[in-house]
Amino acid sequence: MKVHVVDPPAWTPPYDHALCSALAGAGLDVELFTSPFRYCELPTPVGYERHAFFYRLADRARLARRAIRLAEHLPEMAAYDRVAAQADIVHFQWLTVPALDAHLLPRGRPLVITAHDVLPRERVAGSASAQRRLLARFDAVIVHSQAGRERLIREAAVDPARVHVIPHGAFSHLAALPDGPLPPELAPSALPVVLYFGLIRPYKGLDVLLDAWRGIEGAELWVVGRPRFDIARLRASAPPSVRWVERFVSDAELAACFRRADLVVLPYREIDQSGVLATALAFAKPLLVSDIGGFRDIAQAGAARLVQPANPQALQSALRDLLEDPAARRGLSDAAAALATTTAAWATVAQQTSKLYASLS
């Protein structure tokens, strides 16, 4: 079976790489169609081909990259429509302009999409309805949790028969990287380290975490990730025990941060599932997460402690409890390691995904 995995904006390169490698390992003929990734070097494809098919002019531009991307989008989607005739299955990860893309998707081939976001998080007028129209074009929609499935059916009116729950795999390829140095912004510390990692967006609750961190002593909080909004006020008011790396980091730096972390915290206000959580599982790190979406599945497996979202007092109490209880952290870590090799193993994900493809072809 020939499978095209398609991620025009390259919003989830680690997921694309892990999925394509796993599908290739399961015996499928896999090609990834994506765009250049500006921020760090991508891992070498394992068993699949990667094509920087989209937005090549925008990648070379210094100014007005978003406008150039929009100008490239329609002709490149049309060009991909012709290429898609070579595939048995076309599996999209993201689409850049849902209002247009519902009319630009390839025809004559089974179409699958992974709904990494059940509905748009940063909504503008008409975005939710555009997403619903887009999802209606797909033969199958993959979500990462039962909570995500229920929300997709309820809020996006997707036919339940077309919604399939396949877990988010743990990013074991990152945990397999050799030891390397921390980002230069982070001085080595003998204190316990709590890690907040990933693109910084309002819904991810950094403000809640910083409120909770006031009063935490004898530990450091590392905030590592590129902000997608102005965090100057948050940084200015943060306690002195907070360390900052406000940029994309390389995979080697990522691995060093996760290996050093004693606890990974995800104080999100909303989510279905998370690549940061999948990374923490791969490194067998204890997790403190909001009681929302698919995070509950991880807690039920014993790999995470839940805390009420948007509640700094509850988060502070949970932080103190876990920082003072190494045995509790070890229990979470052991459960994370078990998940990474069973339910969240990419071989499991590939098997379930391949079965779904076969049902559509």
Task: Give an overview in words.
The chain has 15 helices and 13 strands. The mean pLDDT is 95. The chain has helices spanning 13-25, 56-60, 65-83, 98-104, 127-135, 146-156, 172-175, 206-213, 232-236, 251-260, 275-282, 295-300, 312-323, 326-340, 346-360; strands spanning 2-7, 29-34, 49-52, 89-92, 111-114, 140-143, 163-165, 193-197, 220-224, 242-245, 263-266, 287-290, 304-307. The strands form 2 sheets. Strands 3-2-1-4-5-6-7 form a 7-stranded parallel beta sheet, sandwiched between helices. A 6-stranded parallel beta sheet has the order 10-9-8-11-12-13, sandwiched between helices. The longest helix has 19 residues, at 65-83. Helix 4 (98-104) packs parallel to helix 5 (127-135) and helix 8 (206-213) packs across helix 13. By secondary structure, it is an alpha/beta fold. It folds into 2 domains: 2-169 and 345-360, Rossmann fold (3-Layer(aba) Sandwich), CATH 3.40.50; 173-340, Glycogen Phosphorylase B (Rossmann fold).
List the helices and strands and how they pair.
Layout: E1 2-7, H1 13-25, E2 29-34, E3 49-52, H2 56-60, H3 65-83, E4 89-92, H4 98-104, E5 111-114, H5 127-135, E6 140-143, H6 146-156, E7 163-165, H7 172-175, E8 193-197, H8 206-213, E9 220-224, H9 232-236, E10 242-245, H10 251-260, E11 263-266, H11 275-282, E12 287-290, H12 295-300, E13 304-307, H13 312-323, H14 326-340, H15 346-360
Parallel strand pairs: 1-2, 1-4, 2-3, 4-5, 5-6, 6-7, 8-9, 8-11, 9-10, 11-12, 12-13
